[in-house]
């Protein structure tokens, strides 16, 4: 069976694909360009209530206002990935206010590989944000979705986690851990009504991150948002953006290390 396809169970066998799109959305990482592109796309389809969770800032408030302008009811909640002790209470309040159909785990940091190699504390911060914070908040949200008996946890991973590269192995290792965690969590939720979808984009061009002209297999926040919608409609377990990355990474994973080291990747 293809990696991005599962056999639906229960309600999903008879529900139309559009009904799998969320009416309510919780975004962890409320200023993420990918998350906001996804929220805009889902609001245009079916979503009516959005929670934006992140560090309180003018940027978070501006993002909320933009989504309100599209017709959604938007609430802002203070959330810090680096404060796992607060996750259960902070996120629990969202779920006590009503069911959440989809949680988008979109926070993360690229770090600075050259700097972080010389500063273990900085490297640990990358790992704590991308992995530890995600494990904590992911488990809280997964438990709430399971208690509801429905809902999807969408985890924004990266192809950087597929194989360690010299250029970004600190970031890549944190995403590898996150990806493995999300896959296992999806297996744990199987049959409960809730499920996990892992999204693995290539390099995403944003305002703060730009690839060199002509760089292969780059993508955009809007392309990732489109892939998320299609994945939700199929109730997919994994989505690659662009889709051909799945084949490329399958080949790269099996290259001998001596060969892989020489590649300009």
Automatic annotation (TrEMBL):
Keywords: Oxidoreductase. Its EC number is 1.1.1.333. The keyword Ribonucleoprotein does not apply. GO terms for molecular function: oxidoreductase activity. Signal peptide: none annotated. Coiled coil: none annotated. Pfam families: adh_short. InterPro entries: NAD(P)-bd_dom_sf, Sc_DH/Rdtase_CS, SDR_fam. It is an enzyme of class 1 (oxidoreductase). Belongs to the short-chain dehydrogenases/reductases (SDR) family. NCBIfam families: PRK07904.1 (NF005912). This is Decaprenylphospho-beta-D-erythro-pentofuranosid-2-ulose 2-reductase. The lineage of its organism: Bacteria, Bacillati, Actinomycetota, Actinomycetes, Kitasatosporales.
